[in-house]
Amino acid sequence: xxxxxxxxxxxxxxxxxxxxxxxxxxxxxxxxxxxxxxxxxxxxxxxxxxxxxxxxxxxxxxxxxxxxxxxxxxxxxxxxxxxxxxxxxxxxxxxxxxxxxxxxxxxxxxxxxxxxxxxxxxxxxxxxxxxxxxxxxxxxxxxxxxxxxxxxxxxxxxxxxxxxxxxxxxxxxxxxxxxxxxxxxxxxxxxxxxxxxxxxxxxxxxxxxxxxxxxxxxxxxxxxxxxxxxxxxxxxxxxxxxxxxxxxxxxxxxxxxxxxxxxxxxxxxxxxxxxxxxxxxxxxxxxxxxxxxxxxxxxxxxxxxxxxxxxxxxxxxxxxxxxxxxxxxxxxxxxxxxxxxxxxxxxxxxxxxxxxxxxxxxxxxxxxxxxxxxxxxxxxxxxxxxxxxxxxxxxxxxxxxxxxxxxxxxxxxxxxxxxxxxxxxxxxxxxxxxxxxxxxxxxxxxxxxxxxxxxxxxxxxxxxxxxxxxxxxxxxxxxxxxxxxxxxxxxxxxxxxxxxxxxxxxxxxxxxxxxxxxxxxxx
Length: 523
Description:
Structural class: mainly beta
CATH architecture of the largest domain: Sandwich
CATH class of the largest domain: Mainly Beta
Shape: globular
Number of helices: 5
Distance between the termini: 35 Å
Radius of gyration: 24 Å
Oligomer: single chain
Number of strands: 26
Strand content: 25-35%
Helix content: 10-25%
């Protein structure tokens, strides 16, 4: 859907010239002012302040905060949660909420449902809504979640780890039931992701290394049978109205906890992101790499003079979107692809390879072909995948922002086949899309790039640089609010921007700095 925002050239220049005023509003004819504003009654209680508002808190009791039964959780740990439920009739409605720290991927019967939550102040997290009516079927069903605990700052917060889940199911015959997170869930510490893995850099937590040989494939399906390595989930908190920082969950690195009197859980204030699988990557260049130090050392430490290389055609296209790469002694293969424009999302690819083949994927916003042979020049933006025998289908757990992607393939003793290179793109579900037409090609390209930039930078938060530091700066990023409002007709993102910024202020007027949450420092 698209629309034309009725703003004259003079009007456009007028509000553009005021871009330094980050909260200035200049509505076009296509937008209407809200007719009323609703305040939660708790805001008006004695002792409360608009400096610390309570925007519609919710209570998810009787759901419990659950996690793996352990005394500490190392950084970059992934826990698998699994719950079997039985649907006894035709469903009229199946809605609820999910909240996990730090990030979750929810599936039902093996099908991807959603990824979240949105970055938030740990004192006031937003629970993501669920609507599983179309995903549940009569009989046995498996609700499953992969939950990643950052454990260190990711431009957001370094604390917390439990999971919270509540689903209300109403049947067409008038009966109902509620599925909650409790100790009936099974969970597994997934060693396919190494617990305690080092962080990527100071504003990105997860340096992903995934070993397919250790992953319990099929665990999200009803046919899977758990063994003794699976544990019963442990209940860390029973209060459904306060966030994880108030549960007493073990946080061994910082010993941080919250005050239940000033913390609360809220409904998600913006819609879930739209996800689409985009293809169209083109092979641009390739090379053979000969290592003089262990590749692991280079990726850990960026060792100088670690390898030699020669540009070459190392692959043969053997099908549509399929490349075969031969063995060349102990040399590693490097193949670099590009998309027509930069996108934000999860890199995806398939590779048919022998067991133990190692693939590092490196992503980048910009690259000059023929220059750097290794794309590891951008804040250590790489992930590692170790193959099981045969066909492997990989997708990163966390999303990236990139146009260029490089596959560094090593430790294989037969030809490998690389295919299905794609990105699962995430975009804010704009109510309206702007149309900008210009007779000057260079300006037209600039306008289209500007729209694409907002698709990439304005999602759950309005960030400065999605590939580098996914933080919502109150100064560096605030000018985007003008384009979001005038070009896209969007007010929910702006409202969340203001709310998250205001809730980061102390009663004395000081601002809680960016290292712990999503808002960033004032500029």
